[in-house]
Amino acid sequence: MDHSPCRYSRSKIAIIVAVATLGTVLAEATPACSVNYPLVTPLGWEKSMRDVSASTASTLQSRNAADVFPHGIVGTWRVTFVSDGSAYPGPIPAGAIVDFGTVQWHTDGTEFMISGGRPPSSGDVCMGVWQQTGPSTYELKHLALAYVSSDTLPPIGPASPAVFLGPAIIHEIVTLDQTRMKYTGTFTIDQYATDEETLLEHVGGTLTATRFTVE
Question: What is the pTM of this model?
């Protein structure tokens, strides 16, 4: 893949869209389609991420975290992505929430995420693969398929029927804390056009995740 930034302005990028059986038409759209900005998480989301139940905390005090969660990062998590201000062509300011959602890491080295920041019609599920690179460090690469749909806000959308925009590659390097109840790290999102070479948007930042348990 050619990772060079797209040289066109956000308001001037044209994407070719298919419209039913009428062939293809040219439609203008901003390339910031890997994220919906500005984005605000629902009330209680961040609080839920900060709160660890008393029963889980008590369990971790009396037992080794490796015994409670023997497979490291494997499990279900709540996650929030925050911009570091490096978005291109931007602007997405530092501190802005880029996305949030639920994530599962599996023992076979696969992963998937359901985004809470994207409407389902625009592609809210992405899948990935991961490997452990250190005692508590993990590297993840996953693939999201982005659409412009009837739920997509201007100036990107709406579009009906939905139109495939292109793949987004999300790369993460994260570290699991000693309790195995939280991980933090960095991420990049690169949204490509359908040719999988033209880079429409790059976003970088930090992420925080807390484990979702039965307690």
Answer: 0.77
